[in-house]
């Protein structure tokens, strides 16, 4: 104990992570060696994370959740890792992604831009670089945002993928983000998405006007126990709601949106026509 380093959890997000790790293992009476056996990482690495000499990886955070029995809870090490890595993300979004990766059904609506799950790398890069130019985020945060989205997309590429229902406002395909080359490839990606067996893609055309029930991003998740949660965003805030009474009206409105939106066949035809005009 003579070499024990005092930790200051307020020094940085990494310090808060390390201090929590030490606090959690000591609460269970575990040494670093005990924790090492339970997590499958070296005791030296655990010591390094606790004292911020080493950075925790996503694998490390998930292993900690398993060891401390936090899998499936709200306040996981994985959630803290995402918040630490993605300080540029809106509040609530990293937590939402944690649930999204375990959902059986995902319903989403977006306006103005292609939603993250459907974006190409080039499209994401243009949006991130634009945010840097406007001074909203740093170049480092832009790189983290791109990596985060890549991990988010990869997490859904699993043997039994979730059903994904996407309704996009027509403005999503009309905004020429990144110019002809980037937008052309993005439209191709949407057509590829629509062709998958576990996806459905529809456009809400401008002609729906006031009949559109949503004016900004809305995500709805159905979990394995059939519970439903929602995630919505304003310009500056994200909000995850696990209350079923709040989610049900959004689910009802989403079904109404799907009924009035263009069919998938009509949607693909619209996108293909626009893509040919761009290229």
List keywords for this structure.
elongated, alpha/beta, 279 residues, 12 helices
Please provide a written account of the structure:
This protein has 279 residues and is an alpha/beta fold. It has two domains: 13-85, 434 Repressor (Amino-terminal Domain); 93-119 and 161-278, Endonuclease, Chain A, CATH 3.30.870. It is built from twelve helices and six strands. It has helices spanning 13-27, 32-39, 43-50, 58-67, 77-85, 93-100, 121-133, 139-155, 171-174, 179-194, 244-260, 264-278, and strands spanning 105-110, 163-169, 199-204, 218-222, 228-233, 238-241. A six-stranded mixed beta sheet has the order 3-2-1-4-5-6, with helices on both faces. Helix 2 (32-39) packs across helix 3 (43-50) and helix 10 packs antiparallel against helix 12. The chain is elongated, with a radius of gyration of 21 Å. The chain starts with 12 loop residues before the first helix and ends with a helix. The model has no long low-confidence stretch (mean pLDDT 89).
